[in-house]
Design goal:
The protein is α+β, with helices and mostly antiparallel strands and 359 residues long. It contains 10 helices and 12 strands. Helix content is 38%, strand content 17%. Strand 2 and strand 3 form a beta hairpin. The N terminus is likely disordered. It binds dinuclear copper ion (CUA).
């Protein structure tokens, strides 16, 4: 490349640079897009705040559209006047000899450009206050589901206190419609640093702060999977602190709850793997209901295999990835707090065989 540049001076010399810039811009664009993607799928890969589902997100989009419309009108007026002025009062032949007319102040114009913006700000302020109040003062109906979400570096603990179980990284909720309103009210806590819970299609962001209980609610009206992520930088693996909200149709949610309430499977043919789990420090960090594993530092593993991803969205939850994850989590999620347990290959196989039964 260097040789070519030296042979072809002039306009050709900048071509590789231009190509580089184009490529860099394209890469940035692609990276930006892929930031919205999650590895394992079935779900819509890109989240979109302009495709709201449910009351709080819709209120935010309605408000956003109003602000965008007001700003668009102001933009068109300002740019229109600017273009008109530039064209109408441009320099013409014969202008050299004299100055344009000098005008000092105009009460009408100054009054207009003071009063109109004040009115616009006032109206937008009122609408903002109304939208915030509408979302924040919502009272949970008796049919509301209450869930506690705890942010950890770098995963989400999801507690269903009324149903008596805990899961991780995937928030399952029932669908809501006008006949059966089933909003979900979330209490947000942090186990360590500040995080932020954000599922763009369902609601705005809400910070998750240590020693402070924040709350928010969602009310999805279409069954499906909604993707979200931690929206507050919280350390090395902030980018792999993904959230999935799985919205179940009527009836299906109750089945899911019942499956989560059961104790973990206890199959005799995987006893060797289970013994390895209980002989290593796995047991200090993870809970498996119905066993003596009561650790709270890492995700509850009682129904591990029902989840779609590993490491809070770091990899799809397949047997191969599970093996790779347990072998050395640092390869899939560098910096995460789960260590390489230094097991032999045979121990690894037995342990993974046990984990695969946790359905
Ligand atoms: Cu948690 Cu960023």
């Amino acid at each position: 490349m260097t040789a070519n540049i030296s042979k072809c001076p002039g306009p050709f010399a900048i071509r590789p640079t231009r190509r580089l810039i184009t490529r860099a811009l394209f890469t940035l664009f692609a990276l930006g897009l892929s930031a919205g993607y999650v590895i394992a799928d079935g779900a819509s890969p890109v989240t979109n705040i302009f495709k709201p589902d449910g009351a709080p997100a819709r209120a935010i989009v309605d408000y956003t559209m109003l602000v965008l419309a007001v700003c668009a009108v102001i933009f068109v007026i300002v740019v229109g006047l600017l273009v008109y002025t530039v064209v109408r009062f441009r320099h013409r032949r014969g202008d050299e000899g004299h100055e344009p007319p000098q005008i000092y102040g105009s009460n009408q114009i100054e009054l207009a450009w003071t009063v109109i913006p004040i009115l616009i700000v006032f109206v937008l302020g009122l609408v903002t206050a109304r939208s915030i109040a509408e979302i924040q003062n919502a009272v949970p109906p008796p049919t509301a589901l209450h869930v506690t979400v705890v942010g950890h570096q770098w995963w989400w603990e999801i507690r269903y206190p009324d149903q008596g179980f805990v899961t991780a990284n995937e928030l399952h909720v029932p669908v809501s419609d006008t006949a059966h309103r089933n909003p979900t009210f979330l209490k947000l806590e942090s186990a360590d640093v500040a995080h932020s819970f954000w599922v763009p299609q369902l609601a705005g962001k809400m910070d998750v702060i240590p020693n402070r209980d924040n709350s928010m609610w969602i009310e999805p009206t279409t069954p499906g999977t909604y993707l979200g992520n931690c929206a507050e930088y919280c350390g090395t693996q902030h980018a792999r602190m993904l959230i999935r909200v799985i919205v179940h149709p009527h009836g299906e949610f109750e089945n899911w709850v019942a499956s989560q309430q059961s104790n973990a499977a206890n199959e005799t043919q995987v006893k060797a793997g289970r013994d390895i789990f209980f002989a290593t420090s796995c047991v200090n960090c993870h809970t498996i209901n119905g066993t003596e594993a009561k650790g709270k530092f890492g995700p509850d593993l009682t129904h591990l295999m029902r989840r779609e991803t590993l490491g809070s969205g770091a990899a799809p939850n397949t047997p191969e990835k599970l093996h790779a994850w347990v072998r050395n989590p640092q390869n899939l999620k560098q910096g995460c707090y789960m260590p390489d347990m230094q097991l032999t290959d045979e121990q690894m196989d037995e342990l993974v065989r046990y984990l695969l039964t946790l359905n």
